[in-house]
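Appendix B: complex inputs.
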Amino acid sequence: MATVGIAGYGAYVPKYRIKADEVARVWGKKGEAVSAGLMVYEKSVPAIDEDTATISVEAARRAVRSSGINPVDIGAVYVGSESHPYAVKPTATIVAEAIGATPDMTAADYEFACKAGTAAIQTCMALVKSGMITYGLAIGADVSQAAPGDALEYAASAGGAAFILGGDHLIAEINHTVSFTTDTPDFWRREGEPYPGHGERFTGEPAYFRHVVSATKKMLEAMDTRPGDYDYVVFHQPNGKFPLRAAKKLGFTKEQVQEGLLCPVIGNTYSGSTPLGLSAVLDVAQPGDRILATSYGSGAGSDSFDLTVTEGIADYPRNHLRRMLENKVYLDYALYMKHRGALK
Amino acid sequence: MREVALIGSGVTEFGELWEKSLADLVAEAGITAIMDAGIDGTDIDALYIGGMSAGRFVGQEHLGSLAAEVAGLSDLHIPATRVEAACASGGLALHSGYLAVASGAYDVVVVGGAEKMTDVPGTEATNILASAANREWEAFFGATFPGLYALMARYHMHKHGTTSKQLAQVAVKNHHNGTLNPKAQYQRKISVEDVLNSTMVADPLHLLDCSPITDGAAAVVVASVETARQFTDQPVRIMASCHASDSISLSERSRFDALPAAVSAARCAYRQAGVEPTDIDFAEVHDCFTIAEIMAIEDLGFVDRGQGGPATEDGLTARDGDIPVNTSGGLKSKGHPVGATGIAQIHELMLQLRGQAGQRQVEKADIGLSHNVGGSGGTAVIHILEAI
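Resulting structure:
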């Protein structure tokens, strides 16, 4: 089988933040208790003029620039998000046009709650492997919505990452991918509703944990590997606690999770969550490092990826997402609501 | 009236049972009880099932017919009745089954209780449970059950000096017992500090002062004492089965530091059984909130009025205390599927009286009492059982 992997990546997280303490203050909760319970201390907030399209463009530009790949060689652009700015009109065409990949290419938007970005990666992998395209661009990005006062409000944030998939100039080979998918309605938003609803505690064991754990186990079986064989592991991060608990259930250590665990400081970027975690790991990975990443999308499904970092990473100009995250501006709740478009 | 016995019992696991429907739970508890009793379907003369609000929790009413169907008994066309008295639905279903057998109308009846509560969000569950209060004069004005019991707790503290620490001790004890109950929802120990540091729900009740939202079912088999030994070597006699009511509204009560319905049902039960509170070896009481257990042990005469807090703190009601209370873990740790609770209490009494309670077996278990409450005290059902 032809080799396929990551030829370039770029990450983008808006610089605005709101602390869990500030959200808790408004709703009469104890910020400390909420933060400790969720392991989320602050979350990113988009600027007034930022949305999934602009975040996707930022991430895509970084990926193209760093990889040095000629955008006209990108034959497919897929943007996974649950907050596409238009209900009808693709985000992917905005991105493709902005990076100069149009018009000899295909494009589409994906939606699968928080795993639409990894579904896009899988599609690009298949197109590359089949020889239909040379390079494909897969993006997971969101400006996620949470109803004021809902538990989701402490985590729902903004950000995204873009990956250029190809067969050469690789910085990481994708050895294998598997998925685990069922119809499990733990989180949803109907057409026309402003905020998603969720099944509260049902989102835990039968939803997140069942799918993340099953997909990861499937991967370990398929590759005949053990948790200890990986240098880094990334799980979808709806809060800080879930990925650590999933890791423990599967026999991974906290140290393996730590590098890709961004939720405590940026919140849950939904479709951006696993892609951003993976990009944070690639920022520090060395040639030969083995990475396992498993996404989760409500509804529900998980995509798992087994990667090996190549020598190509040594010359790759890395942006260092964690350094970017240090440049931040805090908002109070009123400004946060303005940024989220609630005050018009 | 004939003497009445219990000849078998069963419970499902209690908890967030995402994989099981209401019907699954009813079937599982019923079959377990029937197998424990060693009876055949054709031995059953009637069914009673307690359920508070399956109509609103899962959109299912008509539980009597449902129970007969899942038990595979539809073709026998036996009478099958659903009984409702909020959280006392289970206890009241047993009272109904008891009367039916005591009267001689039926020889063998199966009594169950079930509730499937986790299919709705927490706020909706709170609203559904509030239908056990006066909707027009309490719930519409925002009263919830934690709120109503918090008012009673405040008054008990004011009048008798009961402390938050004493309330917390009820939860600590019941969680400790729950660690020994493999069917319990929360099989983990908690400390007084854990309770006091948990989120305040309705001052002075913290999150860990409150029983949880639970799925579960329980069932027992009732027969006349004279026929009981045909089926089992270990029947348990129902010494007393008493039911009392009071106003549904807390504001209409004669007092707020007690549940007068429970006091009345207890008086009836002791008279019917011919025993005193001191004759009771152990009890399962309705600890929907920690204050409810404090009031329960006072209402039942185990301690003087106002002494429930200090007695709990002194270990009187611990598993190795003078009168162990809630060896099952109680509603707090075992879980509180409201319609099933009254029958689950009876199941625990039977395990203890038959010496089958395993690690949580109490030393002296000859006479046990169950105390099942509906709403804020609008209904109370008390049973006293003895090993025979």
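The mean pLDDT of chain A is 96.
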